[in-house]
Each structure stands twice: as C-alpha cells, then as structure tokens.
Write a structure and sequence with these properties.
Layout: E1 8-11, H1 17-28, E2 32-37, H2 40-52, E3 56-61, H3 67-81, E4 86-89, H4 104-131, E5 135-140, H5 153-176, E6 180-187, H6 193-201, H7 206-214, H8 224-235, E7 246-249
Parallel strand pairs: 1-2, 1-4, 2-3, 4-5, 5-6, 6-7
Helix pairs in contact: 1-2, 1-8, 3-4, 4-5
Amino acid sequence: MGRVEGKVAFITGAASGLGRATAIRLAEEGAKVMVTDWEDRGGNDTVELIKQAGGEASYLHHDVSSDDEWQAVIAATLETYGQLDVLVNNAAVIIAKSIKDTTLKDWKWQNSIALDGVFLGVKYGSAAMEKSGGGSIINISSIAGIIGLDKSAAYCAAKGGVKMLTKAAAVEFAQLKNKVRINSVHPGVIRTPGVEATIKKYGGSEKIKQKFEAMSPLGELGEPNDIANGVLYLASDESKYMTGSELVIDAGYSAG
C-alpha cells in the first residue's frame, strides 16, 4: 500500500478494461484518481468501485480528440485536487481493416483518438505538472506500435506514433528540466471487454480463442492488472530514473 500515496492521477478511457483496472490499482496504492471517458455510465461505475474500496475518485465526461475538452478537464482536475502528478493516456479505438478497405475517414478517426488525443494529453498534462513540481506521464501504446499486424495499418501507425511522441517529449522535457517523466507501455493481447467481444462475435469459438492465445508465447491471455501493475510502477517514484522508455508487457510476443 501507498506506492503513489498523496499523488493525483488522471486516467483517460477509464470506463472499462485497462483504464478501469489502472484507476482502481492506483487508488489502491493511495492516489486520488480523476476518471475520464465518453462512456458516462462506465466511468461513474469505475468511480463507485474505487469509493467502495475506500479510495477517492471523481469522473469527468471527456472526448480526448477535443482540444477544448482537454483544457477543461485539466483545469477541473486542478480545481478539484489542487495538483496533477500522474497522467495515463489510455483512451483509444481500433480500426481493424485492410489498407484497401480503410477510408481516409477511418484513418483520421483512428488517429484523432489514439494519437491526437495523446498529444493533447501530453501538451496540457505536462504544463499542469510543471505547476505541481513535476510528474509522470504514461502513454498506453501497444505491441502494434512496435511490430506490424495484419489488417491494422491505421492502428499500428497511431500506436507507433505514440511511441515516438513519447520519446521526443522525453528528450524535450529533460532539456527543459521540468521534472516531467514520460514513458510508453506496450500491452500484448489482454483479456479486456474488447477482446471478449471479439471472441463472442465469432461465436466464442475455440479457434478464435486459440488465435489470441497463440499471440502469447506464455500460452494465455494477459489480464488488465498485468498492465495496471506496470503503469503503477511508472507512476511511482520507484521509476524516477526512467523516461523515454518502452515497457513491453506482451508475454514475449514481440520478442520473436
């Protein structure tokens, strides 16, 4: 307990899946958590789960592709908690189409959420952290930001962009000496509602389940807390000597 005691953490896309698990995990370790999403019911449910466990959390409706909304939610966080120490850019969408079938509209929508949203978070989050004396930004990328995946060109481009944005920002912030660290996390196939929905879409077939498991050399799907624990480390002072790094949590898939 207490690995992020006294810190204020802001997490996008926290209505379910990795975002929810991360919000709960950081709250368990003492952080006050600002949960944001565009799915209000799920976001409020995340807050209730945190409060029921004795933690402190609030919810804000948030479209991460909106510059104005980013400015508003960061201002609201500072007004509510007085500081910002941890920002987890988790919100994303996935366009799973061949290049031939991907429209320019698809491409722009994918990037507006998964890359533009991260840029805006880094821009406004880092400015708020400077006023708080520094902090840690954690950008959730993917193994798709490291290796190419079939029928995922738009997604791979966005997540690869997140990786390089993180590195460029790390160099810039270090030169500014603003005490803001920034790292990326690259999950493999995790048992989230999105993955479960895909399995269900194909009739819950053993074939599709085995396809996902084949992406894990360890032979099983990861759990949301596998990622949340990695984020917790980067959010804590235990990682004070890390910036511009890639934390890959994929059961070894990208190693081969």
